Amino acid sequence: MSNFSLIVVLLVLLALGYQLGMTRSRKVATVNSDLRMHSRPHHYGMMVGLWAVLPAFLILILWLWLSPAVINAMMVSHLPTEVSSLSTEQLRVVSQRISNLADNFGVVADAEAWELSAADHLRQLKANSAIMLTALMAVIAAVGMLISLLKITPRLKARHQVERVVKGLLVLCSTVAILTTIGIVLSMVGETLKFFSYIPPTEFFFGTTWNPRFSTVGVGEQGDFGLVPLLAGTTMIAGIAMVVAIPLGLMVAVYLAEYAPVKLRNTAKPLIEVLAGIPTIVYGFFALVTVGPFLRDLGASIGLDINATSALTAGVVMGIMIIPFISSLSDDIITQVPKSMRDGSLGLGATKSETILKVVLPAALPGIVGAVLLAASRAIGETMIVVLAAGNSPALTANPFEAVSTVTVTIVNQLTGDNDFSSPQSLVAFALGLTLFVITLLLNVVALVIVRKYREQYE
């Protein structure tokens, strides 16, 4: 039985245990009518389901973690003596070839007799492992379900057990998220330090020329790795995007929150939020084949030289993409402003527009600023739109009509191709990634602090 099938079976057992636990708890409550059950029936049902599934699931995780090494060791012991005595690296290559043969990924005609025999042995070991795992999980699940059913009594604190398990799962998920973030940062820090052993940090952070030459001779011939042109391009495109998104997003939010009828609001808001779900590659293609040529022709009609692939093209399309981030968050924030503030303003003789401009928006300003900063961090980290629409020209320029490049596009360029992974040309991608991570992290922290202050004030 495959791993996916085992997980499906565990889910079925969870549902079965839930139903059996609820039924058992109701029978116990009927028999012991003079005693009050500590928990509700669904707590007992969930307890039984968890006792049936969690131990079996832990067995599955441990088995999948430990069994490959054990099976490989058993397979190696079956190899001829002259093969099993090879070096560790050579033995790893042999094991991989035999594994490919066992999984029918290898060419049988090119295999030797002992390799085919080892592949058959490995295939049999994997089959036996799957059977043993299925049987062990079935026994563990049955024992866990039976014991938990027999433990159901009026005094059993099933709710406490379920809550402890749920709390543990929440802590585990939070820990995984935190450790993942820490792992990403540490991996980038290590490679960034290697990069700075080739290129001085001052040259990287303050250099105005980006021209990494692919040379392996010496440090002086590795090229120029100035970050300033890339940050300038990133800032320019993100700035254009925010110029497009902030007015449109705020006007949409104000209309939906203050003027639109309920039916129109309930229809229009989900439709606008669909923009956030469109893949960015679609936006990039739209910018490349539609918006870019349109802006080029529009500029030619009024005497401006606008490249089809430019910072303006990427910024406009990116601004359209992040409109839902600003409009949806700002709409929610504006609607949370207390109605008493609106009523007080209207009662003093202010018009509705004056109330919105002088009362509602200032009251919602901290939350709106948080929404704008979150959208800005989204714009700074965008890649596919810029890859297709910005022109990929890492030159330091203040003209939005020309092609530029950004940090994210450069990361993609430096990690593709046949570059030596230990060369500065590849390691610079980690330095760029760490820099971008710090910038977006600071924006997100500032946004979350502002939003938190806003919520503490009005909730």
Task: Explain what this protein looks like in three dimensions.
- The chain has 459 residues and is an all-alpha fold.
- It folds into 2 domains: 3-156, no CATH class; 223-458, Orthogonal Bundle (MetI-like fold).
- 76% of the residues lie in helices and 1% in strands.
- The protein contains 16 helices and 2 strands.
- Helix 2 packs across helix 6 (158-196) and helix 13 (352-380) runs antiparallel to helix 16.
| Unreliable residue stretches | 216-220
Distance between the termini: 52 Å
**Major sheet, described briefly?**
2 strands, antiparallel
Give the strand content: under 5%
Shape: flat
Radius of gyration: 31 Å
Fraction of residues in H or I helices: over 70%
- CATH architecture call of the largest domain: Orthogonal Bundle
H and E string: HHHHHHHEEHHHHHHHHH
CATH class of the largest domain: Mainly Alpha
CATH homology group of the largest domain: MetI-like
| Secondary structural class | mainly alpha
Count structural domains. 2
CATH fold annotation of the largest domain: MetI-like fold
Side by side, the strands of the main sheet go 1-2
Rounded mean pLDDT is 84
Number of helices: 16
Q: Which descriptors apply to this entry?
A:
459 residues, 2 domains, mainly alpha, 1% strand, two-stranded antiparallel ribbon, MetI-like fold
